[in-house]
């Protein structure tokens, strides 16, 4: 898989993408990251990527020409995603869908966002990682990349680890414990130390259901609506 990221701060992403699962996946040849500096596609000596909005008002808008030129220069843009608080909420199903793409391009806007003409002409969909506003799309790009890359076959090295994560089957995950068996006066549930795997799976399923009903009943409501 190839993931292109258009940004004015490529250094923001380079470090994190070399660590943990994203880094190991790149080393294993499962994914290639291309960090494209949008400033390289400007045509003035100040490398200007933003300007005042038409119609007045505060803030600045990312200019269309650099993004358009950077996208045109890509030989394999694949599906183009703009990271924006106006977008559809990013979720596990979207991560799975993106993981099936051979090529994915993420646009990192800043300020008031990217000129709408780029969105209309070049973007396949807008995605938001939450109902809040960030200084730029770079943190959101890292969230999307991490969620997508860990789903690539071989990235985790243990499918059971992913299959027990929250949202994998539409619910939250059960609580997890490790050694020591006692810490701070609190003990690991006896069932997890029993060696009775069918009983353990039933306990985990019940705990996952209880956690989902208590913390995210909306997930159950969505399932019921379907």
List keywords for this structure.
elongated, Trp Operon Repressor, Chain A, five-stranded parallel β-sheet, 9 helices, alpha/beta, 226 residues, Alpha/beta knot, 2 domains
Explained architecture:
The chain folds into two domains: 2-149, Alpha/beta knot, CATH 3.40.1280; 169-225, Trp Operon Repressor, Chain A. The chain is built from nine helices and nine strands. The protein has helices at residues 10-17, 20-27, 64-73, 92-99, 116-122, 138-149, 159-163, 197-215, 217-225; strands at 2-7, 32-37, 50-51, 61-62, 79-89, 103-108, 125-128, 182-183, 186-187. The strands form three sheets. A five-stranded parallel beta sheet has the order 2-1-6-5-7, sandwiched between helices. A two-stranded antiparallel ribbon has the order 3-4. The protein has a two-stranded antiparallel sheet with strand order 8-9. Helix 1 runs parallel beside helix 6 and helix 3 (64-73) packs parallel to helix 5 (116-122). The chain is elongated, with a radius of gyration of 21 Å. Residues 222-226 have low confidence and may be disordered.
Give the ordered list of helices and strands.
EHHEEEHEHEHEHHEEHH
CATH domain topology of the largest domain: Alpha/beta knot
CATH architecture of the largest domain: 3-Layer(aba) Sandwich
**Rg value:** 21 Å
CATH class of the largest domain: Alpha Beta
Q: Major β-sheet, in short?
A: 5 strands, parallel
Report the sheet-strand fraction: 15-25%
On the 0 to 100 scale, the average pLDDT is 93
List the domain count as a whole number. Answer: 2
The total beta strand count reads 9
Give helix % range. 25-40%
- With helices defined by DSSP (H or I, 4 residues minimum), what is the helix count? 9
Unreliable parts: 222-226
Instruction: Provide the CATH superfamily of the largest domain.
Output: SPOUT methyltransferase, trefoil knot domain
| Shape annotation | elongated
Computed structural class? alpha/beta
| N- to C-terminal distance | 32 Å
Strand order of the largest sheet: 2-1-6-5-7
């Amino acid at each position: 898989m190839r993931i292109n990221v258009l940004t004015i701060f490529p250094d923001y992403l380079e470090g994190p993408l070399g660590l943990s699962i994203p880094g190991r996946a790149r080393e294993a040849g499962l994914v290639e990251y291309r960090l494209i500096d949008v400033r390289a596609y400007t045509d003035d000596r100040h490398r200007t990527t933003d300007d005042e909005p038409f119609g007045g008002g505060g803030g600045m808008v990312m200019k269309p020409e650099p993004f358009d030129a950077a996208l045109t220069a890509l030989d394999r843009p694949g599906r183009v995603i703009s990271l924006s608080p106006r977008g559809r909420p990013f979720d596990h199903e979207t991560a799975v869908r993106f993981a099936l793409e051979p090529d994915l391009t993420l646009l990192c806007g800043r300020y008031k966002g990217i000129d709408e003409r780029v969105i209309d002409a070049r973007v396949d969909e807008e995605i938001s990682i939450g109902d809040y506003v960030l200084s730029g799309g770079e943190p959101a790009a890292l969230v999307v990349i991490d969620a997508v890359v860990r789903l690539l076959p071989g990235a985790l090295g243990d499918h059971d680890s992913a299959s027990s994560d929250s949202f994998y089957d539409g619910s939250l995950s059960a609580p997890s414990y490790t050694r020591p068996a006692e810490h701070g006066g609190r003990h690991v549930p006896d069932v997890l130390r029993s060696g009775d795997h069918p009983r353990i799976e039933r306990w985990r399923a019940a705990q996952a259901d209880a956690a989902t009903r208590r913390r995210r009943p909306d997930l159950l409501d969505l399932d019921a609506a379907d």
